[in-house]
Amino acid sequence: MLEVKLFYKTQRDLANSVNQIVDAYWCSDISEDDFIRHVSAIYLNNSNKIIKQNGFTTILKQQCGKRRLDVIERILKLNGFIHDTQSTG
Fold first, then answer.
1. Angle CA(53)–CA(41)–CA(43) in degrees, nearest 5?
2. Which residues make beta-bridge pairs with 56?
3. Ramachandran bin of 22, using left for φ above 0, alpha for ψ from -120 to 50, beta for the remaining angles
4. What is the reported pLDDT for 25?
5. First-to-final CA distance of the chain
6. Residue 86 binned pLDDT confidence (cut-offs 50, 70, 90)
7. pLDDT at residue 85, rounded to an integer
């Protein structure tokens, strides 16, 4: 069972959770609705650990990788949390 916290102490803890959520979605262990809900909740409560200076934080880029962050970025854009000026690059 996937356990997702709402608040994370460090960016590394957050990155590990993001990895678990994305991987669970890719393995069809969680539904698309649950996936989007988890990503949205994590962002709403930890946005300062996810985005800095219009991009993902360095720790997130290093720990999660481009493919995972591309999916996260797309969800955040679809839900209106970030705009097209922000990027994983």
1. 5
2. 51
3. alpha
4. 97
5. 32
6. very low
7. 53
Identify which of 33, 25, 77 has the alpha carbon closest to the alpha carbon of residue 56.
Answer: 77
Residues in Cβ contact with 70 at an 8 Å cutoff, skipping those fewer than 6 apart: 88
Express each pLDDT in 9-59 by its tens digit: 999 999 999 999 999 999 999 999 999 999 999 999 999 999 998 899 999
Distance CA 86, CA 8 (A): 22
80: left (phi over 0), alpha (psi -120 to 50) or beta: left
Could you please report the per-residue DSSP string of 1-24?
Answer: -----S--SSHHHHHHHHHHHHHH
Residue 36's H or E segment, with its range, is helix 32-50
- Number of C-beta neighbours around residue 75 at 10 A: 19
d(CA 72, CA 20): 12
